[in-house]
Amino acid sequence: MTEEEFLQQYHREDYDRPSVTVDLVLFTILDETLQVLLTKRREHPFQGKLALAGTFVGIAESLDEAAMRALHQKTGLHDIYFEQLYTWGNLNRDPRMRVISVSYYALVPAESLTPLGEDVAFYPAEKILQHGDIAFDHAQIIRYGIERIRNKVNYTDIAFSLVPEEFTLPQLQKVYEIILGQKLYKANFRKKIADKIQPTEKMTSGEAHRPSRIYRKKESIC
């Protein structure tokens, strides 16, 4: 039997086919707080509760394409680098049917945010996890996303995704502190990131504070 003959007589209906979704954990920093993008559900199940932005994956699109489509539909944003976070497949995670979700996460500087769609907003991540009413297993996904970025901030340049292209060292240190949830010693921090940054010729105005050197991320860092 050839492969073509095999496929002609293959019965796909003999196997269950669960639905697949993508869920987006989009972080930013607003009001010196790590915040996560959530949308208020208009329909059942979990009507009125907060949920991550997401969508069902179309039969003719890849996971990444579905993630970018959901991002644009919910926020109007595009061309954001997402990284897969985890695949969630608990049997009863969606009361409608068997649904497997591939979650993605990304960090976006507040300066690049555009006006969001209706019922979509950023919420303080830790506060919403403690006191919010979150749909599906999305609280678990958010917690895992926070854990991932806290781990990665120590050995990657992920924190640079939350500052403008040009920044001061106090700005960058504040981002690290917000992600890690702890204060850092200035001297130790600057030693740690010294090989990741390069100074520009620019200085802050110094109208209210002592002028600070403005830096950029080294192009070689990846």
Report on this model:
The chain has 2 domains: 17-152, Alpha-Beta Complex (Nucleoside Triphosphate Pyrophosphohydrolase), CATH 3.90.79; 161-217, Arc Repressor Mutant, subunit A (Orthogonal Bundle), CATH 1.10.10.10. The strands form 2 sheets. Strands 1, 2, 3, 4, 5, 6 and 7 form a 7-stranded mixed sheet that branches. Strands 8-10-9 form a 3-stranded antiparallel sheet. Helices cover 27% and strands 27% of the residues. The chain is α+β, with helices and mostly antiparallel strands and 222 residues long. A hairpin with a 2-residue loop joins strand 1 and strand 2.
State the gist of this model.
The chain has 222 residues and is α+β, with helices and mostly antiparallel strands. The protein is built from 6 helices and 10 strands.
* Number of helical segments with 4 or more residues: 6
Proportion of residues in extended strands: 25-35%
CATH topology of the largest domain: Nucleoside Triphosphate Pyrophosphohydrolase
CATH class value of the largest domain = Alpha Beta
What would the principal axes of the Cα set say about the shape?
elongated
Report Rg. 21 Å
